[in-house]
Design brief:
alpha+beta, five-stranded mixed beta sheet, about 10% strand, rod-shaped, 60s Ribosomal Protein L30, Chain: A
Length: about 260
């Protein structure tokens, strides 16, 4: 029994690999790396892109609900939330002035015609109130300009208002009374005074313009801060001084109704 060898038992443990709990960590790191590289190359692409592409990308992030188009109006630079209807129309580009697609417009929104400008409406009023004697109209969004014959306010060769001038002066006063802008009164003459070699034309026309301005202020048609007077002499003729009809057109009182203060 003493010679019997003892049995030696050897236990082998299976070695554990590193793939246990940390087996997928490399995937996260790799995804982060790929994302960073994508952002890096995106920035590099934008830096090398032309201005049109940069503006298009910038416009998309500022206006995700608005298609980008060259020459959009300045209102498109205002960032607006989705669904904010700001205009009317029939299509994405024309109807809403490039600010909003139709599918974001309220169901009750219907195409309407563009309202007539204030100055265009005032032109019709001037024609009616002045008995169609106004002429040389210039109608713009910023201003309305027209002329009236000198005979509506003055007698020939005089710079003080005629006694019967109150009729048309009152009508002009009522037109400008509700106007929120400025009124410039410019008196013009033909070249009969300037042909004498003097500056009588400027002095005479200035006196006429000031007479009308003072009368309008005194009658509370317009405040003194919003009305201006100027004498133009004969330097801005609109017709030939060689004919009687041309001289009559040049001897005029010109009114300019402007949203901006005259310089």
């Amino acid at each position: 029994m003493a010679d019997k060898k003892a049995i030696i038992v050897i236990k082998k443990k299976k070695g554990g690999a590193h793939g246990g709990a940390h087996g997928g960590a490399w995937k996260v790191a790799y995804a982060d790396f790929v994302t960073a590289m994508m952002c890096f190359f995106l920035v590099m692409w934008l830096m090398g892109a032309d201005e049109e592409t940069k503006k298009a990308v910038e416009h998309y992030f500022n206006h995700p609900n608005t298609p980008y188009k060259q020459g959009k109006d300045r209102n498109a630079d205002i960032i607006k939330p989705l669904g904010d209807n700001t205009a009317e129309g029939e299509s994405i580009l024309n109807g809403l002035e490039g600010l909003q697609p139709d599918d974001l417009s309220p169901a009750e929104a219907k195409p309407t015609s563009k309202p007539q400008s204030e100055h265009a409406e005032m032109k019709e009023l001037v024609e009616e109130q002045m008995d169609n004697q106004a002429y040389a109209f210039d109608v713009q969004v910023e201003y309305l300009k027209f002329s009236l014959p000198e005979g509506l306010f003055f007698r020939p060769g005089e710079y003080k208002l005629a006694p019967d001038s109150s009729k048309y002066l009152g009508r002009i006063g009522q037109i400008v009374k509700g106007y929120k802008g400025y009124v410039n009164i410019a008196a013009h003459v033909d070249d009969s005074l300037d042909s004498r070699g003097k500056r009588d034309g400027y002095e005479f026309s200035t006196a006429r313009a000031v007479s009308i301005m003072n009368a309008m202020v005194e009658k509370n048609y317009i405040s003194d801060e919003r009305v201006f007077a100027a004498g133009m002499g004969s330097k801005r003729s609109i017709a030939s001084n060689e004919t009687v009809d041309g001289r009559n057109k040049n001897r005029r009182i010109e009114f300019t109704l402007s949203l901006e203060k005259p310089r």
